Structure to design on (515 residues):
């Protein structure tokens, strides 16, 4: 599988152009309103986008192994944020060790080796049961179900779900050979654009809060505007996918919906733990999980829908 | 230099493991002489604190450590002498003044990292403070005592486990305090304790 195909260069070129224009606008705003915290936050976000695009694009150009390693690192950083908030105790040390140093590398190695039969069930079956067993072996029964569920949850969301992004490269779709990298680009692009457009539409027209108890910033206007923008972009990008134009639009709509719901679920966890962001890893954005929470939910569904309806084997 | 390289490597590793987010809440980074007084729950604490100090400050800051632990075995001896440039003190009180090595480091103008509980605690909460910090502060009343709270490191490497697990830690620097002439030991230790606990999250 070669990740360096013509379309990748086109997309990276467009993204770099877009973020350059954003930087220029940010610079002008900064000049006009030197001490505005909203402008400063916007510029911090744009700077972080530069870094994320350069790292992601670099990995794409470096090849399949680099992409897999990048997502393994993303899973590592996300899981680190997740378990920090989990109600784990001293007795869970070995279970956490197994998550970070056995399950995580194993999952990405299986994807690298293209073992669908194993990577699609390794964590839900062996990981799920194994973590419960390890926890029981340490004979600490305090809040047993809470603790075990938290480690299982962390492993599923941060490792299993995220790993479905590079797993897209393993799909075999007739008439789309050697181009499955673009599926990954499509998914990430749609999810992130949907996040950004929900934010923009919400800022501009947001009046009616959706779920104020979970996530006070989400509004009806933001959601509708955001996912419709994402669906439109998906339809426009149909040529990089194996889908027809209406299918691409519909799938993008679904990806955006799932991304929204993922963000909502992860907000509920943050609310419960009393935190606003998962960490301060990415300036202006919060933690790794704040940036990828929507992908955690859109990636596995997109993978399986595409596999079920479009791939052979 | 090999020692600098190993120091850098340890800091990269501890950042990968712990994130090691530094918050300069009550004071800024400053080259002036200070005693950083921190809670102690893990072997990683010294590296965590080191990683929070920018390089020029780090190289003038020495951790005060227990001799009997750090002189057992060549690896520990190498780490404490060449990498951390530690000040070793004997905890068994056989010597007249066990704190003398720390006092002499302060006289040379070095800053110190000092764990006032005297040993690693089991978790979250601060153990009773030993009189050591009171003695040092009263001998050097002109030196700022900077309270530092290292959050979560006990969860990375709990007592009894050999391999660490990744978890986010933060290192919070509080408002400096000083020994005031005539202050009693109990009173001073209570003040240090209060300053440390004020930095503890939630």
């Amino acid at each position: 599988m070669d990740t360096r195909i013509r379309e990748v260069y086109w997309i990276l070129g467009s993204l770099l152009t877009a973020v350059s224009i954003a930087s220029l606008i940010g610079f002008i705003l900064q000049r006009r309103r030197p001490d505005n915290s909203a402008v400063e936050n916007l510029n911090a976000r744009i700077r972080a986008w530069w870094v994320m695009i350069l790292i992601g694009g670099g990995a794409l150009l470096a090849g399949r192994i680099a992409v897999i390693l990048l997502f393994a690192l993303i899973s590592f950083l996300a899981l680190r944020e997740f378990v920090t908030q989990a109600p784990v105790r001293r007795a869970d040390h070995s279970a956490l060790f197994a998550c970070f140093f056995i399950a995580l590398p194993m999952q990405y190695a299986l994807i690298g080796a293209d073992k669908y039969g194993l990577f699609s069930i390794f964590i839900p079956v062996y990981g799920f049961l194994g973590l419960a067993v390890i926890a029981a072996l340490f004979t600490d029964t305090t809040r047993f179900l809470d603790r075990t569920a938290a480690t299982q949850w962390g492993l599923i969301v941060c490792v299993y779900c995220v790993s479905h992004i590079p797993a897209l490269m393993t799909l075999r779709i007739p008439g789309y050979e050697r181009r499955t990298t673009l599926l990954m680009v499509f998914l990430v692009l749609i999810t992130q654009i949907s996040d950004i457009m929900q934010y923009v539409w919400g800022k501009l027209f947001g009046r009616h809060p959706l779920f104020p108890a979970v996530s006070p910033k989400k509004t009806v206007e933001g959601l509708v505007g955001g996912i419709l923008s994402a669906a439109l972009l998906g339809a426009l990008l149909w040529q990089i996918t194996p889908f027809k134009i209406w299918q691409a639009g519909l799938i993008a709509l679904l990806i955006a919906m799932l991304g929204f719901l993922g963000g909502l679920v992860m907000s509920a966890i943050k609310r419960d733990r009393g935190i606003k962001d998962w960490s301060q890893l990415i300036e202006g954005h919060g933690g790794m999980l704040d940036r990828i929470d929507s992908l955690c939910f859109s990636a596995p569904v997109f993978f399986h829908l595409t596999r079920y309806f479009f791939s052979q084997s | 230099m090999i020692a600098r390289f190993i120091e850098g490597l340890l800091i990269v590793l501890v950042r990968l493991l712990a994130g090691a987010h530094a918050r300069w809440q009550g004071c800024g980074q400053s080259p002036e002489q200070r005693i950083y007084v921190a809670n102690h729950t893990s072997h990683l604490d010294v590296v965590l604190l080191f990683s929070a100090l920018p390089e020029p400050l780090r190289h003038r800051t020495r951790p005060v450590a227990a001799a009997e632990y750090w002189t057992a075995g060549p690896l520990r001896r190498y780490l404490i002498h060449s990498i951390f440039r530690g000040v070793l003190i004997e905890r068994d009180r056989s010597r007249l003044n066990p704190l003398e090595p720390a006092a002499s480091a302060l006289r040379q103008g070095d800053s110190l990292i000092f764990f006032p509980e005297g040993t690693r605690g089991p978790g979250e909460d601060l153990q009773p403070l030993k009189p050591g910090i009171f003695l040092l502060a009263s001998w050097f009343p002109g030196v700022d005592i900077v309270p530092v709270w290292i959050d979560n490191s006990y969860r990375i490497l709990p007592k009894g486990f050999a391999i660490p697990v990744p978890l986010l830690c933060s290192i919070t620097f509080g408002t400096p305090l000083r020994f005031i002439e005539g202050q009693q030991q109990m009173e001073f230790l209570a003040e240090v304790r209060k300053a440390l606990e004020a930095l503890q999250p939630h």
Residues 19 and 50 of chain A are 7 Å apart (CA to CA).
